[in-house]
Design goal:
Transcription factor TFIIIC triple barrel domain-containing protein, GTF3C6-like, TFIIIC_triple_barrel
């Protein structure tokens, strides 16, 4: 073993994970401000409990290629007078258009290496209701 080797040859880095709820979309209604608990991120199958009603089981999938998460912000529409004009009272100034809707500005936030896909757990409330309706 090399004398300069340390137990961790890599620097501690933040790791970002995308929570994928596509498989439960339409099966359960998740309010925008729903309370949730996410447990076991360091396990093979993390658990997501939403509103103390729905239990979801996750499974990690490695991303292929480059996967980047973006942030979207509204920005005002800016007009700038570029040419000289005798009739232009605002020459050389920047004007913000109040009558036009804001545009979207998108910027990268992080690079993802894993996606955490969730499915309903067999003991979730939604599964119980579905089975009762079938009987």
């Amino acid at each position: 073993m090399e004398e300069n080797a340390t137990p961790h040859d890599h620097e501690d880095q933040d790791e970002f994970v995308l929570l994928d709820l596509d498989s439960v979309y339409g099966l359960i209604d998740i309010p925008p401000n729903a309370n949730y608990v996410l447990r076991g991120l360091d396990t093979l199958n993390p658990v997501l409990i939403i509103e103390d009603k729905f239990k979801l089981i996750g499974e990690y999938e490695e991303t292929i290629g480059t996967c980047i998460a973006f942030e979207e912000k509204d920005t005002p529409v800016v007009h700038q007078e570029t040419g000289p004009s005798e009739a232009n009272l605002f020459s050389g100034r920047t004007l913000i258009g109040s009558s036009q809707p804001p545009t979207k500005q998108v910027k990268p936030v992080c690079q993802l290496h894993k996606v955490l896909k969730f499915k309903l757990s067999p003991d979730s409330e939604i599964q119980s209701r579905t089975m009762e309706e079938d009987n």
